[in-house]
Amino acid sequence: MDGPAQQDVPALMAEIGAAAREAAAELAYASAEAKRDALLAAADAVHDRRGQILEANAEDMAAAEGKGLTKAMLDRLALDPDRLAGIAEGLRSIAEQPDPVGRTLETWERPNGLKFRKVSTPLGVIGVIYESRPNVTADAGGLCLKSGNAVILRGGSESFHSSGALHAALVDGLRAASLPAAAIQRVPTTDRAAVGAMLAMPEHIDVLVPRGGKSLVGRVQAEARVPVFAHLEGICHVYVDAAADAGKARRVVLNAKTCRTGICGAAECLLIHEDVADTLGRDLVTDLLEAGVELRGDAAAQALDPRVTAATAEDWGREFLDMILAVRVVPSIDEAVAHVRRHGSGHTEAILTEDDAAAERFFARLDSAILLRNASTQFADGGEFGFGAEIGIATGKMHARGPVGAQHLTSFKYLVEGDGTIRP
Amino acid sequence: MDGPAQQDVPALMAEIGAAAREAAAELAYASAEAKRDALLAAADAVHDRRGQILEANAEDMAAAEGKGLTKAMLDRLALDPDRLAGIAEGLRSIAEQPDPVGRTLETWERPNGLKFRKVSTPLGVIGVIYESRPNVTADAGGLCLKSGNAVILRGGSESFHSSGALHAALVDGLRAASLPAAAIQRVPTTDRAAVGAMLAMPEHIDVLVPRGGKSLVGRVQAEARVPVFAHLEGICHVYVDAAADAGKARRVVLNAKTCRTGICGAAECLLIHEDVADTLGRDLVTDLLEAGVELRGDAAAQALDPRVTAATAEDWGREFLDMILAVRVVPSIDEAVAHVRRHGSGHTEAILTEDDAAAERFFARLDSAILLRNASTQFADGGEFGFGAEIGIATGKMHARGPVGAQHLTSFKYLVEGDGTIRP
Question: A363, A367, B133, B299: least CB-packed within 10 angstroms?
Fold first, then answer.
């Protein structure tokens, strides 16, 4: 445990919360230039402080190795000059995006002469609770600043020193642009009571963004007293329709599963129309097995290749995050849709088809945040969507959905101009 | 207590909830024509069933008079042929609005050829909890149907029979268009346990809309496990700037307070810039007093007319909903903004000024859902905004804000088309 010992965590969090609320009020009307300048200055500060940041990261890595973290976890935690340059580049790319606040979203006029404008505004204070990846400090801090929101960052204990050093660079940026330092705050303790406090301070935090494993996200979703932008799981399905183009299907299915198996956009279940099971289906199964993917199928899928093992009931709707894929042969597109409704997580699904009517049916009858046609589920990512960066991916239907970029961390207000106009 | 006696309310609500969820899945891809047809047929059914509806209303009125309800409450409850024609007309006007579902909200393309469409979708199941006004049954039912959402209506016990008869007309409309009857359900009991059940069924209800007094809305906001679209109070401020046009100010201030004192958009506090207190301020005070408004002011406001009584601390930030207004003289626009931030409810505020910079400052530094310039706060209404009707007015910053019409009862999904596109 680092940070001040014996701390009164609830008091500390209340203080941080009040400072965030005050900073948010000021940030809400900060100029686009000031926010841009702060982000560019923060990127410079990441470069200037690189020695210090790498040193802090070495300290975290040494502690993590001592704790016996897995290789994948250590890799997520590690920083090097290249990754640091990437973090600075990320801040610059957020800086150069159009300002998401004060955008006119709609205008109209009424017969009585009233002129209406719907204009974007920040949400207020955003709480981000994440695990070991230190780059989230910079991404989340940068996106919240860009969108005029104050942010309270609570990173995992593994990346405590790295996040602290990156946070210092963000504060340098705020100071350089004369913006309140409390606009981006970091919880300066690894005491877990801080997480509990963040879940129960609706007077100071307007939205929570949890990033990490299912147990963290599940806890935040269950206990938070404010809206949560998150996904619990990414159980992505790929449906290969009877009218699929074989070349596209083979390319996309392999990519959707294997490009990166550990991300939420990785495919976890393949549904194959029975009309093409024996032909294209067999090729898909062979491709996947040869790429080293373990396949768990229903009887019809097992019939395609003896190496396909029997899927258990738990394999449907399961997020493997690994080189494992569930495979089922379905009699119709409607059965594929029903399967996704039953087992999906509302994250991302893809259809492979050359039939416009089939694609339209799939798009209309499913309601996942992201639906793709003839493209890999691995595109479920704010950067790939062109949002510059993402603070997370949301599967709820309220407010923000899919990859959440700076533009989605806003609300709106109505500005109405009259000329002494009264209601009859 | 009406409805089946000795009912197992939790079981009843679970059944209603499951039927709503199922209907919502079907309604989500119902055609615009079917929804329009259902609304027009429901309007016809309100006309055809008018005898029955008025009879049911007479039963409610007799019971209400027996309970000693106030005249205002009886007036809200009463139906007559004119009001019924208005309800039918309201349904027709919702029918004729553009369909809010399936609208393309944004399109863009990425360098890799992926084509993105952001398309509006329904939210799912909406729970509406309201008090005595039977017309909410038709307005809320109609708006939810238009936006492709299933709805569970829970009206007050006073309007139980009236709401039941109006609900039957809505179901006639659904049947005429072959849409699921469970798309618009009404809780068939006045047992208060039904409200508690609606607050605790996030698996069946996605959003709650409470309409009624502060205690109802407060309870729903405190206990609901899903997002709530509502306002607890409408504490609307009118600020008369140093650069106000006297004629516009006198017209708007009087209207903002007195047009209808019982609605959430009625002004509750007048702030006058000290530079114009002795001139325009005195005229405003005289106008209001002569119109029968009781004024409660600070010392400077009291100095304008001896009939202004001393405001207590509780009079700032108080929703009078009556012919009473708090009045304060402020030294600057910034002090007016600070007063609103301290005492406002985030609903609606107006500035009277001919100074563009002052209006801009007021618009930028306040974050109420609706901000008006030179126009009455009484325009805070979905009909006046041109939304056809409103299910309520929301003061939260998440998802829906201000008057909530059919278009605001939607979420979105991303539809992405590729050509066998894979992620590198």
Answer: B299
